[in-house]
Amino acid sequence: MTGFTGLSAFPLTPLRDDAVDDRSFAGLVERLSSTGVDAITALGSTGSYAYLTTEERAHVARIAVEHAGETPVVVGIGALRTSHVVANAEAAQAAGASGLLLAPMTYQPLTHDDVVELYRAVTQHTDLPVIVYDNPGTTHFSFTHELYARIAELPGICSIKIPGVPTDPDAARAHVAAIRAAVPEHVTIGVSGDAYGAAGLAAGCDAWYSVIAGTLPEPALAITRAVQQGRPADAVAESERLAPLWDLFAEFGGSLRVVAAIAEHLGLAPDNCLPDPLQPLSASQRAKISDVLSHLDLD
Amino acid sequence: MTGFTGLSAFPLTPLRDDAVDDRSFAGLVERLSSTGVDAITALGSTGSYAYLTTEERAHVARIAVEHAGETPVVVGIGALRTSHVVANAEAAQAAGASGLLLAPMTYQPLTHDDVVELYRAVTQHTDLPVIVYDNPGTTHFSFTHELYARIAELPGICSIKIPGVPTDPDAARAHVAAIRAAVPEHVTIGVSGDAYGAAGLAAGCDAWYSVIAGTLPEPALAITRAVQQGRPADAVAESERLAPLWDLFAEFGGSLRVVAAIAEHLGLAPDNCLPDPLQPLSASQRAKISDVLSHLDLD
Fold first, then answer.
1. How many C-beta neighbours within 10 Å does residue B53 have?
2. Active site at which residues (chains A, B) (predicted)?
């Protein structure tokens, strides 16, 4: 299942004056396609899917597919209401997406049964493969391995996007092996949390679902290819070199505002490109980001 | 500011086949108005605001105002994106609402500055008084007293809906007094979390923002009027009598699914009236609810 192994890059969906900025989004997608990432995931958390209307999301899915060339496009379809998720899935399929990414967004807390029925409804309404998106930092929903197993049994589930792995390599390998043992063989496991990308791939994950790759694909590709070519130590070393970047993600309240500031700094997105109420980082925070990029030769 | 003291009742927005069931919603509103609650808050968390489209929400606001008679109607306007919140505020004002209720919904975690700017944008775009809705169980955003103070300074903020108070009466009084000291005098304080309604009013809260009152207004009115008439011990005793109901809220994962089951049991809402993916309670859970209602003479 091409696109659900290797490096999947998550571009921003830049806004300008509270509307999707088609030009800069198309530019980000073209840049990713030309760099050779294995898949492009539009409308991930980094793509602000939760903030956009159904119509905006259909539009973004179409732009992504039009500008991705041969690179498979996955589209995030999460929403609070099942019927809206299904509508997003249909729109993504109509746009030509190769796969769907679904996180169980919550307002009222969800039970495990609620979430199984959500994935069942969606997989019954689409022909596209669906990636289970486990992102407790934004959804506040916690999966268990048993729940992964229940959902992964549904026809159409192709991958699970897991949060970061333990930092100890042995613990990381055991963690990935335990998930692998819980789900059918055809379901790939992809790590997220960019600081854990190298460690997750080295621990046996099939894919890296990467925020930074959506804006700075080269270092993420170098990490991914190193593991794929049997040089996991090189991947871990490159990730350690990028530690000042991962530290900024932690210090500035998550990856999204930092990658938005990076994209703005590099001229890839208009200023203040995130949806309100998400305020841009301060001038001093931006100056620190600029220093880190320069120090790491990423600007 | 009528409507922001006393009892504000939060009706469900029942769905039927994934569409708002106008008839049962209008019936719930008429029932509340005729019972004499001090305000009706449509599209609170209990009214599933987070799950409905902008168009559905404008429609629900209009039905509420049309069927509320002389009772003031407050409308919940929360959304993940500031421009959507503003659009909901304009629609609620056009529908004839008397006030607005706004929780800082989150997907990406919000900073204090984000939330202040959200309330600033909304209060600048509406003439209606705005109630600050502090509901960490659904928004996963935590207010501090300092943040209450910053927001309450904005022109147009009229009340703060706080989560439950400490169970110890002295601690509850101190808690409410500390919030009172932090905000301007014209800003009322309303308690939520129905198990804490009597304790909150007895501790000096001006209002009770009540889930149960949206479906079973009489016992909530009895509690509210007892405190207003200088009989707080009677209010606390009535709340203690209802403890089996509050216990069900805790046992069955929150108040929403329980009040939905109560409304369905009493014929006030169609079966399975909550938006998917929220599954209805099981037959055995419903049987237990029915037993409790019967035992408490509430059916």
1. 13
2. 133 (proton donor/acceptor), 161 (schiff-base intermediate with substrate)
> What total of structural domains would you count in chain A?
1
How far off is chain B from A147, nearest CA to CA, in Å? Answer: 16
Which residues, listed in sequence order, are joined to residue A74 by a DSSP beta bridge?
A: A41, A99
Q: Catalytic annotation on B161?
A: yes
Among B67, B2, B66, smallest CA distance to B31 is for B67
Would strands A99-102 and B73-76 be described as parallel, antiparallel, or unpaired? unpaired
Give which of A102, A100, A25, A101 is closest to A68, Cα–Cα.
A25
**What's the pLDDT tens digit per position in A88-121?**
999 999 999 999 999 999 999 999 999 999 999 9
For residue A1, pLDDT over 80 is answered with no
- Cross-chain residue pair A137–B81, CB shorter than 8 Å: no
CB contact under 8 A, B81 and A51: yes
What mean pLDDT comes out for the span A220-232?
98
User: Is B133 among the catalytic positions?
Assistant: yes
Residues of B forming the annotated binding site for pyruvate? Answer: 46
Q: What is the pLDDT of residues A164-199, one digit of tens each?
A: 999 999 999 999 999 999 999 999 999 999 999 999
Q: Cα–Cα distance between A235 and A250 in angstroms, integer?
A: 21
Assigned domain for B172 exists: yes
A56 touches chain B (CB under 8 A): no
CATH number where A221 lies: 3.20.20.70
Q: pLDDT at position A3, please? A: 42
Q: What is the CA angle B250-B229-B259, rounded to 5?
A: 25
In tens, the pLDDT along B3-17 reads: 489 999 999 999 999
Annotated binding residues of B: 46
Average pLDDT for B55-67: 98
Give the whole-angstrom CA distance, residue B191 versus residue A86: 37
CB B249 within 8 A of CB B255: yes
* Dist. CA B292–CA B299, nearest whole Å: 9
Tell me the three state secondary structure of residue A134.
coil
Structure token pair of residue A166: 């333990």
Question: Tokens 């793509």 label which residue?
Answer: A47
pLDDT (average), residues A143-148: 98
For residues B76 and B99, is the Cβ–Cβ distance under 8 A? no
Q: Could you read off the pLDDT of B18-36 as tens digits, one per residue?
A: 999 999 999 999 999 999 9
pLDDT digits (tens, 9 = 90+) for B151-174: 999 999 999 999 999 999 999 999
Q: State the DSSP H helix or E strand holding residue A63, giving kind and residue range, or none if neither.
A: helix A54-67
Whether residue A23 is contained in a domain is answered as: yes
Distance CA(B92)–CA(B66), nearest Å, equals 12
In a domain, A29, yes or no: yes
pLDDT surpasses 50 at A55:
yes
% pLDDT > 90, chain A: 98
Measure the CA–CA gap between B68 and A180, rounded to whole angstroms: 56
Is A244 within the bounds of a domain?
no
Sign for the CA dihedral angle at A217, A221, A222, A223 comes to: positive
Give the residue numbers spanning the domain of A124: 6-230
